[in-house]
Amino acid sequence: MILMRSETVEERPAYVRPVAFVADPVVVAASLRPLLENHAAACERERRIVPAVMEALRASGLFHITAPERAGGPGHRLTTHIETVAELAKGCVGTAWSYGLLSGITGTAFALPPAMTERLFQTGEELFCSASAPSGKAVAVPGGYRVSGRWGYGSGCLHADWALNGVMIETDAGVEPALAFLDLRDPACSIEDNWHVAGMAGSGSNMIVARDLFVPDNLILWSSRTPPAEAILAMEGLEPRDRWPMEPLFPLGVLAPMLGAATALLEGVAQAMPRRQIAGWTYAGQSGSEALVGMTGRAAMEIDSAWLHVRRAAGMLDEAAQCRGLTGFDKARIQADCGYAMELLRAAGNRLMDVAGPGAFALSNPLQRIWRDLSVGTRHNALNGQLSIELYGRAITGLPSNIALLPDITPAPTWARPK
């Protein structure tokens, strides 16, 4: 979490909530599943969250579940957010992917100081997306910066009012990375429709373009000015989300919809097994085959195991980070948890489609769409399983980090240190 204050969290009046306060987001998400399932094919075809689903999501209050209490939100745990995204993904993976990023970044915006939120929020219903790669350039001008750039993979950008995007800024100390809030409603911003993919089409992860957009000084978040974890823990008036370290949030966020996708695939395959015939074989149905039943059980264990890794990783932010700063080694293990979970989920998806058989690949069968979404989503570079596991091995053996986001992966555990 990027904090912009030095000692305390500033007080401000809470926003009047435009939607009902969501006490149990997972239950609300489950109630929306039938609607999302009915519109999942349209979501893929139109490559965005369709209007009926977007309207229901807004009315449900789910976009604000990680907003802090001081901003009028419920301030739910990170684990609850992950569970909510996963529940929505059982109905539509593309919608859940966009929802997860939009709600997560919007919660971050709500947690910022008043000087920023007063500019960012006019109604309290604004939504935020993010493309954090520093592919934009910011040039200093009186009162702020002129920003130009192109940012790919802007998931949810078609539904966002603002984008929190990475830029490089020339300063007296050299070129520094930062994040800039871009007003997507400004004529200087546009969305380039270039998201044509085999899976995850519904996420609408198009290109965000800015041409000489003015960004005020106080809508820049400087990476180098984030207080250390120890300083954050000493601040007064903090809420749990203020103590979440920034680095693990993205991998955990993009993993969440994959958990729901794999679960939906398991449910669809298992429910059809008693009645699904196996052409050319003597079984009355697939559930009569010990081999196929065993494959289904193994896939279920892979999904369960992925959840165990995710809960351990998210628990580090919800629990450990509330009382101490996470070490570089902690963060490396979280990254490995996420990468390994992705491998487990993709393996489970492939195994389940082996059980389902060739009929599951008919375009009229929703299982193939879920499988394609799972196959593409689990290949996100942020969750590369092999590289993430290598990172963990490097942290254990004292080798340098292999990921730019985590340059420090120390200290190695005492049991791994050379004697």
Automatic annotation (TrEMBL):
GO terms for cellular component: cytoplasm. Keywords: Oxidoreductase. The keyword Zinc does not apply. Residues 36-107 form the Acyl-CoA dehydrogenase/oxidase N-terminal domain. The keyword Oxidoreductase applies. GO terms for biological process: fatty acid beta-oxidation using acyl-CoA dehydrogenase. Residues 254-384 form the Acyl-CoA dehydrogenase C-terminal domain. It comes from the Bacteria. One of its GO terms (molecular function) is flavin adenine dinucleotide binding. PANTHER family: FLAVIN-DEPENDENT MONOOXYGENASE, OXYGENASE SUBUNIT HSAA, MEDIUM-CHAIN SPECIFIC ACYL-COA DEHYDROGENASE, MITOCHONDRIAL-RELATED. Belongs to the HpaH/HsaA monooxygenase family. This is Acyl-CoA dehydrogenase C-terminal domain-containing protein.
